[in-house]
């Protein structure tokens, strides 16, 4: 509920930007961890990413319902979920291909 209030207060453009930065911050924390082996920064960015993700998904839902006409809302929602799940399919297929290739080489 708080995420929706934040999106309404700061508007979609800024909340999308700020919450996207939390994903970048979390990715940077893993790079920092691989160099320094200090996990405190990575642990600290976990809750920050959680808050940012909630705000991002609220902004995404608001955009998905605001732009289409009423008769097109179902189509937009289905297109979003298709694209969202294709990421998992492509990622899983890539990992399967890598593991399959390495399993054959032994």
Describe the structure.
There is one protein chain. The chain has helices at residues 2-10, 12-36, 40-66, 73-105. It has 106 residues and is mainly alpha-helical. The protein folds into two domains: 1-67; 70-106. α1 crosses α2, α1 packs across α3 (40-66) and α2 (12-36) packs antiparallel against α3. The model has no long low-confidence stretch (mean pLDDT 92).
How much helicity do the residues have? over 70%
User: What proportion strand?
Assistant: under 5%
Sketch the topology as an H/E string, one letter per element. HHHH
Radius of gyration: 18 Å
Q: Give the overall form.
A: flat
Major pleated sheet: none
Keywords:
106 residues; mainly alpha; 4 helices
Short description:
This is Major facilitator superfamily (MFS) profile domain-containing protein. By secondary structure, the chain is mostly helical.
List the helices and strands and how they pair.
Layout: H1 2-10, H2 12-36, H3 40-66, H4 73-105
């Amino acid at each position: 509920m708080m995420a929706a209030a934040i999106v309404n207060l700061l508007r979609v453009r800024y909340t999308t930007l700020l919450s996207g930065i939390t994903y970048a911050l979390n990715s940077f924390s893993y790079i920092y961890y691989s160099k320094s082996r200090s996990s405190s920064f990575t642990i600290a960015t976990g809750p920050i990413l959680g808050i940012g993700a909630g705000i991002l998904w609220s902004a995404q839902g608001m955009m998905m319902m605001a732009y289409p006409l009423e008769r097109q809302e179902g189509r937009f929602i289905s297109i979003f979920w298709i694209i969202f799940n294709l990421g998992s399919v492509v990622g899983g297929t890539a990992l399967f291909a890598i593991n399959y290739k390495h399993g054959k080489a032994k």
